[in-house]
Amino acid sequence: MAVNIGVARESAAGERRVALTPETCKKLVAAGATVRIESGIGDGAYFPDQAYVDAGAHVTAHPREGADIVLCVQPPSVAAIASLKSGAVLVGSLQPQADPARAEAITSRGIVAFPLEKLPRTTRAQAMDVLSSQAGMAGYKSVLIAAQLAPRFFPMLTTAAGTIRPSKVLIVGAGVAGLQAIATAKRLGASVEGFDVRPETREQIESLGGKFLDLGVSAAGEGGYARALTDEERALQQQRLADHLKGIDVVVCTAAVPGRPAPKIISAAMVAGMKPGSVVVDLAAETGGNCELTQPGETIDSKGVTIAGPLNLASMGAQHASEMYARNVYNFVSLLLKDGALAFDWDDELLAKTVWPERAPSAV
């Protein structure tokens, strides 16, 4: 029997992305799946119902009912999870451990959940890496927000009224979002620096035309992530960064540690030392912010310095963000399908290490 895949409209406030596009719908149908969608699932990303129908989807009021696989961007509500059939597969950015009620709903219904944020960071998994694809859009949008808020041009201009010097932009954090921010700020003509406590990011920053800001503090950790700094290292970093920020026009913060609150890198005292008219855009606002003064979802003025804490930036680029996210999801779901039916290969580390609740080795 063909596997049934259900996709409902996203319920989170302001969420415009979708986990299924007409492109990936067509591929799933070609793989032998039956795809059911709720009317309007793609409206926020400008994918009309008819495009899904043309791709082979069936429009229904309750696509999750009886579905073998449910796709989502953000976690469904507890009530929605409780309504899924026992043993259904749930795929998306689920963060089950962030909400005890959500975790209980998943376990009590026997849902086989695949939180894609848990996906191993391996070469084979890159095509399924939703964190990277969505961070790229967030990094891009962050610089556009900064350019809009800044009372300056980003590029150098030579005009009849004189020469305008380029804005000095500092990107804090050189992960996917930070590197995209560096590339975007460079394209806009700014003088760009990148700062990261992992020294191995120097080459990546410089390859995009940025200058690596070396504050003499290294926090290289395992798996490509930064380790926590010691008190002495943090104090030295803070002192040198504070001095450097006095000459910066725009700061974009992107530093994050998976599963933990965002590290506080820019203190209130640092902000007080920045020039009037400077701008801070904090991508880490959703997990507390890299700037001490960041207010999630708000743009504030602190004695002449503008501090923005935008949320869910990937949703601002909903169409391309959805295309990337949906391809990530399709590539992962393909691992669950065999001849159009649902099949689990627990010898595949991508399944075994992503599934939640985690399975005992004997079950894997």
Architecture overview:
With 364 residues, this protein is an alpha/beta fold. The protein has 2 domains: 4-118 and 318-352, Rossmann fold (3-Layer(aba) Sandwich), CATH 3.40.50; 138-311, 3-Layer(aba) Sandwich (Rossmann fold). Helices cover 29% and strands 16% of the residues. The strands form 4 sheets. Strands 11-10-9-12-13-15-14 form a 7-stranded mixed sheet. A 6-stranded parallel sheet has the order 3-2-1-4-5-6. The chain has a two-stranded antiparallel sheet with strand order 7-8. Helix 1 (22-30) packs parallel to helix 10 (318-333) and helix 5 packs parallel to helix 6 (176-187). The longest helix is centred in the middle third of the chain and has 20 residues, at 130-149. The radius of gyration is 22 Å and the shape is elongated. It holds the Pfam family AlaDh_PNT_C. This is NAD(P) transhydrogenase subunit alpha part 1. It catalyses: NAD(+) + NADPH + H(+)(in) = NADH + NADP(+) + H(+)(out). Residues 147-309 form the Alanine dehydrogenase/pyridine nucleotide transhydrogenase NAD(H)-binding domain.
